[in-house]
Structure prediction request, 148 residues.
Amino acid sequence: MFKQPRSVLVLIYTTTGEVLLLKRTGVRPFWQSVTGSVHPGESLSQTARREVQEETGIDVTESELDDWRIDFRYSIFPEYRYRYPPGTTRNLEHVFALRLPAARPIRIAPAEHSEYCWMDAVAARDRVLSWSNSAAIDLLLHPNNATP
Prediction:
């Protein structure tokens, strides 16, 4: 079954400005926020809640998620295009955020990630691979910039 070219990015951060990053396993390991494709029949907020639970072990309610009402359209990395319907090269990603009072231990999904870290938002922005993840962190740093 192919993935839909629609996903969520959930930026998890603390009140003191630390951002959670997960190191992706696979062909090209890289750092990222929580991400995941929308399953058939799932709302964006349901996807965000499911992905946070699966990738971090954090059980979050819908009211705890902050829907930034921002979408990014980006090219899917060539090494991941086989997961999508033939000819699909672009994905639409919707951004949510989850603010926690403090950094805490995370239970990663070993099939997807090899490690996690909490780091200053500026350092996190510079460490992530995808431009959309970097732009989301930049919006955290500069909330008055509604359009990245």
